[in-house]
Write a structure and sequence with these properties.
five-stranded mixed β-sheet; 12 helices; Nucleotidyltransferase, domain 5; binds 5'-O-[(R)-(carboxyoxy)(hydroxy)phosphoryl]adenosine; binds zinc ion; alpha/beta
């Protein structure tokens, strides 16, 4: 099969993503998010996300097909995220994908969400193809992972990940401490614009020499979140107004510093002069700025797909399956299930 026409389904968190690709060409990328429904809880509620996927899936599939201008009968394969992610949310996508594949009698590919984020890069068309090896830093509300990609379809190694909160989750929780709305990332980014990133020296998780021995490429944001909480409490106890802009800027600086430092350490240690960024937190202006500057100083080239392909989406899932098909990988057996802790 030369240029397979693949429909990808992504439901691992709060985005119902349906994407259609032909080979490495993006035809449609439809996303329905239940983020608004989670806003009043200050974070993603798994049951709410699963129910929202159930409601959003069929309209999203119809919209994606219409946008791509293709019919169901033209598809060569269906792809779905089988993990990692929220169990109930994943199950909705996996069930729908199996039903669709069986009904049109086409092969089904179960793929890994994190590897899907890396595959987003191949849809960026026009630019040179992803070169191997590359280091990938994936930061979102659900994951913070550092990967060594030697080959997208056969050789992706997880170097490290967060030991507690994901980076986006830390933004969301700290925003709440500062009485900013959900999702907190964009709010903190905005508030930080008027603040001094050096005003408060917040801790950089797992960055001490004693931590680095065991957790060189791992992340931890819970200590940072607690440090912000203490700072806010102290202001309140002393009856002084919380300097929101300075706290936001200093917090953002601590997150950005640790993400960029560890990603570039992996590049240096492994002799890999390429870094791919992905996940919704890449929307952070300071993160992109610092990553680009420090990578240039270190002789590392940085790739950042457009934001619509960085946040969770179905196109990246379809793209990964398309690569697997082209590499000769047989389809998944229909007995696979959702796996919330699926390894890469
Ligand atoms: O990839 P994504 O859209 O999906 C999920 O993880 O579900 O990422 C969403 C996360 C949220 O935690 C949000 O606060 C964070 O990305 N985020 C940001 C920014 N924009 C979104 N974090 C920091 N700075 C931003 N500008
Ligand atoms: Zn993701």
């Amino acid at each position: 099969m030369n240029e397979p026409l693949v429909l990808g389904i992504e439901t691992s968190c709060d985005e119902t993503g349906i994407g259609i690709v032909r080979g490495r060409t993006l035809l449609s990328n439809t996303i329905a998010s239940s983020m608004d429904e989670h806003a009043r809880y200050g974070g993603v509620v798994p049951e709410v996300a699963a129910r929202a996927h159930l409601e959003a899936l069929q309209p999203a599939i119809d919209a994606a097909l219409a946008e791509a201008g293709v019919g169901l009968d033209e598809l060569d394969a269906v792809a779905v995220t089988s993990g990692p992610g929220l169990a109930g949310a994943l199950m909705v996508g996996v069930g729908a994908a199996k039903g669709l594949a069986v009904s049109i009698d086409k092969p089904l590919y179960a793929v890994n969400h994190l590897v899907g984020h890396i595959a987003a890069d191949i849809l960026t068309g026009g630019s040179a193809p992803l070169e191997y090896p590359t280091i990938a830093l994936l930061v979102s509300g659900g994951h913070t992972s550092l990967l060594h990609v030697r080959d997208l379809t056969t050789d992706v190694e997880l170097l490290g990940e967060t030991m507690d909160d994901a980076a986006g989750e830390a933004f969301d929780k700290v925003a709440r401490l500062l009485s900013l709305p959900y999702p907190g990332g964009p709010e903190i980014d905005r508030a930080a614009a008027d603040g001094d990133p050096e005003a408060i020296r917040f801790p950089r998780g797992l960055s001490r020499a004693s931590d680095l021995a065991k957790h060189r490429y791992d992340f931890s944001f819970s200590g940072l979140k607690t440090a912000v909480a203490r700072w806010v409490e102290r202001c309140e106890a002393e009856g002084v107004e919380v300097p929101v802009a300075d706290v936001a800027a200093s917090f953002r600086e601590a997150v950005v510093d640790v993400l960029v430092t560890k990603a570039l350490a992996a590049c240096a240690d492994l002799g890999v002069p390429r870094l791919l960024l992905g996940g919704g937190v890449i929307a952070n202006r300071r993160l992109r700025e610092v990553a680009l500057r420090r990578a240039a100083e270190a002789g590392v080239t940085v790739r950042i797909p457009p934001l619509s392909l960085c946040t969770d989406n179905g196109a990246m899932i379809a793209a990964l399956a398309s690569e697997l098909i082209s590499s000769g990988r047989p389809p998944s057996r229909l007995t696979f299930g959702a796996d919330s802790t699926l390894p890469v």
